[in-house]
From TrEMBL:
InterPro entries: aa-tRNA-synth_I_CS, Arg-tRNA-ligase, Arg-tRNA-synth_N, Arg-tRNA-synth_N_sf, ArgRS_core, DALR_anticod-bd, Rossmann-like_a/b/a_fold, tRNAsynth_Ia_anticodon-bd. It catalyses: tRNA(Arg) + L-arginine + ATP = L-arginyl-tRNA(Arg) + AMP + diphosphate. Its EC number is 6.1.1.19. The keyword Protein biosynthesis applies. SUPFAM superfamilies: Anticodon-binding domain of a subclass of class I aminoacyl-tRNA synthetases, Arginyl-tRNA synthetase (ArgRS), N-terminal 'additional' domain, Nucleotidylyl transferase. A motif ('HIGH' region) lies at residues 123-133. The lineage of its organism: Bacteria, Pseudomonadati, Pseudomonadota, Alphaproteobacteria, Hyphomonadales. Residues 2-87 form the Arginyl tRNA synthetase N-terminal domain. Monomer. This is Arginine--tRNA ligase. Keywords: Aminoacyl-tRNA synthetase, ATP-binding, Cytoplasm, Ligase, Nucleotide-binding, Protein biosynthesis.
Length: 587
């Protein structure tokens, strides 16, 4: 199935070719002046200029060739040589039917698909997640859904941060509190207990405690460093603790992510590739890439034409330990061994751009995968109303769990104000509030160009009016209830007839779906899809305001509008689904 804009572009391209010009001049897009035309083609000016012709003359020839073709009802030449195109009502009806019967609601597929690994989320074991982690989770999850929808073979990996200093902090702090645990006993022969010695609350307490002490006392920090080094070197008790810390953390993380509708295929982490590091180091030495420098093994990744300073890639530090560089490179080794992806995308804060530049260069130099197949999908920060990175009132990072709870409370308030019937049971009410909160948080984040910063404003995010997640849910809910009522009254959707301007505008809005998805995918920018979904909801609201639908007395018109509603709902839900947003039956 191809959308109207594609059909029109093909017709115009053929006409340009028939006149001896390149097909590219035939590109068609939605009209800037919807009151004058549905679509426009601006190619005549450039094409005519390239051969010293008069643009309006060429436009007249192209217009003649395409006139009456396929969906075209009328072509006008305007101004210096614009082609203004109006499509026929029949073509709009057909387009609506096609969307209604298409499993992808007109979303299309890509010509070439790939096997892609998404590295996103990146929560750190024991360290509380901050709003930056929310961005990575939501943007990453949405891109996974988008890529999958369009046919890519996607694997999403949470890539836990479980190899750094925070592990040392946890171990030493636990030792301070409970030195008698078997994990600290050098003579213990194992096996270690299966029941974890800590709860998630313990982890939430131990880490800040230790990190505060370490800040005040260098010797305390040194102890944590040592503990990490021992853990990395294979200390059996510490390794057993590491496993426990990871399991306890992951269980809690899954709850927070589920609230946001974020899903991962893999829960691997930095610690999983520890076993691959020795061979990787050997390989890097053999290839002459890793060089000894002041007791550390490094790779010089700088290039002649570098505009900014490019520090070396750290394979092994002077303490003999491995860090963020090594685990990321070893993770690439692992993924190339196990998944063999065509491409890897890292959805991580923009401020880590240099790190990824270094890792990507090292991976390329080591022959693991071409640099052009590794992408850092950066994003901006979430700020408070003061314009600085968002903090809680107490000045700390906002935990994801607290953020979710705040959004839920606000959503509960808003659905109350919006007049959700009290007859709805408590469970149902809680479920609706959770869906509203999820929609609010996700859409507020995704609607921004991802590299920009945005201001965190829960009040605005949860509003039922404006460009918000709840507004979109409300549009979907309205269509659902309207279709439900029609069905109860025995009214069936019928043949689509596009007569009014608002109906026409709605179908034209739907026609932009495939293009919005393709652009979103090509640029790795969810906001393009957000724009589409929002304009679709607006076009529906306009129809709803302008015409009776379920109450239309003319049976033919009513059937047509109900069919139109079905098509819109289908596409709205498909679009929202990619954004990870689910609409309830009522709200
Ligand atoms: N855990 C890291 C952080 O909190 C993010 C991990 C990003 N992914 C990666 N492969 N380095 O900053």
């Amino acid at each position: 199935m191809s959308d109207l804009v594609t059909q029109l572009s093909a017709a115009c391209a053929a006409a340009f070719e028939a006149e001896g010009f390149e097909a590219r001049w035939g590109a068609v897009r939605r009209s800037d002046r919807p009151e004058l035309a549905d679509f426009q083609c601006n190619g005549c000016m450039g094409a005519a200029k390239s051969q010293g012709l008069v643009p309006r003359d060429l436009a007249a020839k192209i217009a003649q060739r395409i006139s009456g073709q396929g969906p075209i009802e009328r072509v006008d030449v305007a101004g210096p040589g614009f082609l203004n195109i109006r499509v026929s009502s029949e073509a709009l009806s057909e387009a609506t039917e096609a969307i209604r019967s298409d499993a992808k609601a007109g979303g299309g597929t890509l010509d070439t698909t790939e096997k892609v690994v998404f590295d996103f989320g990146g929560p750190n074991v024991a360290k509380p997640m901050h709003v930056g982690h929310l961005r990575s989770a939501v943007i990453g999850d949405t891109l996974c859904r988008l890529f999958r929808f369009l046919g890519d073979d996607v694997t999403g990996d949470a890539h836990l941060g479980d190899w750094g200093l925070q592990m040392g902090h946890l171990i030493t702090e636990l030792f301070a509190e409970q030195p008698d645990l078997v994990y600290f006993d050098p003579d213990f022969k194992g096996p270690y207990p299966e029941v974890p010695p800590v709860t998630i609350e313990d982890l939430g307490r131990l880490y800040p405690q230790a990190s505060a002490k370490a800040k005040a006392d260098p010797a305390r920090n040194e102890a944590s460093q040592l503990a990490v080094a021992e853990m990395q070197a294979g200390h059996p008790g510490y390794r057993a603790l590491l496993r426990h810390f990871i399991n306890v953390s992951v269980d809690a993380l899954k709850v927070d992510y589920a609230f946001l509708g974020v899903e991962f295929d893999l829960w691997k982490g930095e610690s999983d590739v520890d076993g691959l590091i020795p061979d990787m180091v050997e390989m890097l030495k053999e290839k002459g890439l890793a060089k000894l420098d002041d007791g550390a093994w490094i790779i010089d990744v700088a290039r002649e034409d570098d505009k900014k300073e490019m520090p070396p890639f750290m394979v092994i530090n002077s303490r003999g330990g491995t860090g963020y560089h090594a685990t990321d490179l070893a993770t690439i080794v692992d993924r190339m061994d196990t998944l063999k992806p065509d491409r890897m995308l890292y959805v991580v804060d923009q401020r880590q751009a240099l790190h990824f530049e270094q890792v990507f260069r090292a991976a390329d130099m080591a022959g693991l995968i071409g640099e052009d197949r590794l992408e850092h999908i950066g994003f901006g920060t979430v700020n408070g109303t003061d314009g600085k990175p968002f903090k809680t009132r107490e000045g700390g990072v906002l935990r994801l769990a607290d953020l979710n709870a705040m959004a839920l409370a606000e959503a509960e308030k808003k659905i109350g104000e919006n007049g959700l019937s009290d007859e709805i049971g408590e469970d149902e009410r809680a479920r609706i509030a959770a869906l509203v909160a999820r929609a609010a948080l996700r859409f507020a984040d995704l609607q921004n160009v991802r590299t920009t910063n945005y201001v965190f404003d829960l009040e605005r995010f949860t509003s039922f009016e404006g460009k918000t997640g709840p507004y979109l849910l409300y549009a979907a809910v309205r269509i659902k209830s309207l279709l439900r009522r029609a069905k109860e009254a025995g009214h069936e959707p019928g043949e689509v007839r596009i007569e009014s301007d608002t109906e026409r505008a709605l179908v034209l809005a739907m026609d932009g779906f495939a293009n919005a998805l393709a652009q979103s995918h090509a640029k790795r920018q969810p906001h393009i899809l957000c724009e589409h979904v929002y304009s679709l909801a607006q076009a529906f609201s306009a129809l709803y305001a302008a015409h009776p639908i379920a109450n239309e007395s003319d049976a033919g018109l009513r059937g047509s509008r109900l069919a139109l509603c079905e098509a819109v709902l289908k596409q709205l839900e498909a679009g929202l689904g990619i954004l990870g947003i689910e609409a309830p039956e009522r709200m």
